[in-house]
């Protein structure tokens, strides 16, 4: 049986496949140019010249966080979505287009195996994306539904916020090169190491996409295909239903709970306890791309040491409660819990390193 199937696995890529891949890449490049690359170029110039990229999204120009309330929840949600809505829309569009334009057979042959090679490819593919964890999640979900290996899909998701080259540039000129080095080291560990180990926790039944689930997002090769535009609308609508409600509600909850997640800690508090609190809170909280930089800047100005700052440097961008809820729709709970625990644990280590070297 394997010998009979082997020739079909080596069939050359058809012109239709090449055309669909090119269309996807053109759309992705156009969207990223408008939403990410061009705006970040101007932001980098500003960071180099003025050593700032704006005020902290946690409290704005205020020195204290607002008490938990509906007003605090709504104000934060408005501020957050103003910053991310373009990238969020692009993430949903690209996540749905992945399921329509990119052929499953080609993706499975190229990236279907959980291996270090495919993990590396998934992580490196995230570099030009420069998305926050929530905006990258729909694309990672789309890749996994198209039979891309869990390791590659997770590496793409985690790599987008953690090894974002624009954020590293901002960080170097706003904070210092030491922060950048810490971010690169722990970002690489999470992107490539944690994603690979997390994928190994999945058994074969978890890693394989059920046929009925595949049929919902795309027809099989043996079935007559509906028009691409119709399949894209169905795919995007399904993704919106699965992603947006949890995204919206969790952002409201986190916005209201800011004062509880990031309490006004005294400078006399034990540094390790501060690092633990910030590592857990930062891993749950949701921020736009690069927003960890002004947040860290504001905490440093209030007298917090390098330990809590270095912990936030890793955990704030890596994951969030909304993005974990999104990923949970396509990955088993043990994988999601492992990723969250790993991010918090590495945030603790980063905080200890930061307390020593910063």
* Strand content bin: under 5%
pLDDT averaged residue by residue: 88
Q: How large, in whole angstroms, is the Cα Rg?
A: 21 Å
What series of H and E elements makes up the topology? Answer: HHHHHHHHHHHHHHHHHH
Kindly state the number of beta strands.
0
Helix content: over 70%
Say what oligomer this is.
single chain
Work out the helix count: 18
- Uncertain runs: 1-9, 208-224
Counting helices, strands and paired strands, the structural category is: mainly alpha
Termini, distance in Å? 60 Å
Q: What is the overall shape?
A: globular
Total domains: 1
Largest sheet: none
Commentary on this structure:
By secondary structure, the chain is an all-alpha fold. The chain has one domain (16-357). The chain has helices at residues 2-9, 15-50, 70-101, 104-111, 116-125, 133-145, 150-162, 165-174, 177-200, 204-207, 211-217, 228-256, 258-261, 271-284, 292-301, 306-318, 321-328, 333-357. Helix 3 packs parallel to helix 6 (133-145). The chain starts with a helix and ends with a helix. Residues 1-9 and 208-224 have low confidence and may be disordered.
What features would you highlight for this structure?
single chain; 358 residues; mainly alpha; 18 helices; 75% helix; disordered N terminus
Strand-helix topology:
Layout: H1 2-9, H2 15-50, H3 70-101, H4 104-111, H5 116-125, H6 133-145, H7 150-162, H8 165-174, H9 177-200, H10 204-207, H11 211-217, H12 228-256, H13 258-261, H14 271-284, H15 292-301, H16 306-318, H17 321-328, H18 333-357
